[in-house]
Known about the structure:
Radius of gyration: 22 Å
Structural class: mainly alpha
Shape: elongated
Largest sheet: 2 strands, antiparallel
Helix content: 55-70%
Distance between the termini: 19 Å
Number of helices: 7
Order of helices and strands: HHHEEHHHH
Strand order of the largest sheet: 1-2
Amino acid sequence: MSQIKPNSEIYERERVILETIKNYPELHHNALLKKIVPEFMAKTTFEKTRDSLLEKEIIIVSHKGNMKFYTPVKNFEERIHHRIEQNTNNSYHDLKLKIKKLDTDYSHKDIDDKISIANFLLRNLILVDTGFTLLDSVKNPKKTLYRDEHLTVQQLIDHVFEIIRQDKDFEIIFPTTVSNLVGFVPPTFLDK
């Protein structure tokens, strides 16, 4: 049974690089590298983590002569909210289109494809709903701004389950699909 668990090593590495950049803004790339490698991580790990921070737009790079300097993005909170909103909306509309096509295509797929498609759609619908919940929280925690979208996601999830229920392979598809969604359910240890 898989649970969604954060990879603490990745977070720790990102934190080390961000802290070092913040505490030593005058360090160019090679000096930053010497400050972090090998005490906190290997060189390739540093480069992968730095690339990830650049890709996520958490840090930016500037050039002075032939030297690179890294700086934390100043308006990161605003930028991440915009990115979450953009990605959530794009995924929401893409999923609606995919599910609309599902009505005609699903029954013609083989059983492994049916399971894979159902898992993909349900997982992504849950992630989209989570995106809308995050947006509701940061924009106005006292009001549900994305009420219509939440309701539509709920209806789309039901629609996917209805397509599965109507399928001739329901008895195999349904348990396999639901068991793969367990990672999205809060773990039982919270009850203890």
